[in-house]
């Protein structure tokens, strides 16, 4: 179990988001609390981002493209904030960054550095095949830290058991926990940004350094309309 197999994308999503790419990363990891050395290394980034206002946040190319994609799908990005934007706004309000575990902390750090919203999943909890679709009417799931979340009109990852992830909030069902050994990440790139490749490389390096990642694989998928 190395990483996600090919993720199919619905015609509805592709027509609304023609530049869509998915950056995929898979690795075997060891979950633990992030050491203080990680936070010391991250501190300058957190201080910098705490000074940003909404204009700077929304100007990040990956985040700007994702907000436009939400609007194209019929969703309000100011109501359902992308996870990358929510992290930036949390820092700008002086609330600091959550400390969850090494893998989640790395995902949040990469999201802050790059502007990408990144889905993080325990691959053993995902039942293929996986596809990305526009959330259907009355589609919901139990989201991390948010309870029952209405995901209609969001770009939603679904497996054989139903929806489990989107760029705003992942589900409790497939979340990364203390027992996770097989990690799968999805970088949502709605603008075909040049930043995707270095973002994947940064994440891979941090996982190897701070989560003892092995058998690490990355790839970029560019879905096409048939």
From TrEMBL:
<feature type="domain" description="B3/B4 tRNA-binding">
    <location>
        <begin position="65"/>
        <end position="212"/>
    </location>
</feature>
<dbReference type="InterPro" id="IPR005146">
    <property type="entry name" value="B3/B4_tRNA-bd"/>
</dbReference>
<dbReference type="GO" id="GO:0003723">
    <property type="term" value="F:RNA binding"/>
</dbReference>
<protein>
    <recommendedName>
        <fullName>B3/B4 tRNA-binding domain-containing protein</fullName>
    </recommendedName>
</protein>
<dbReference type="Pfam" id="PF03483">
    <property type="entry name" value="B3_4"/>
</dbReference>
<dbReference type="GO" id="GO:0004826">
    <property type="term" value="F:phenylalanine-tRNA ligase activity"/>
</dbReference>
<dbReference type="InterPro" id="IPR020825">
    <property type="entry name" value="Phe-tRNA_synthase-like_B3/B4"/>
</dbReference>
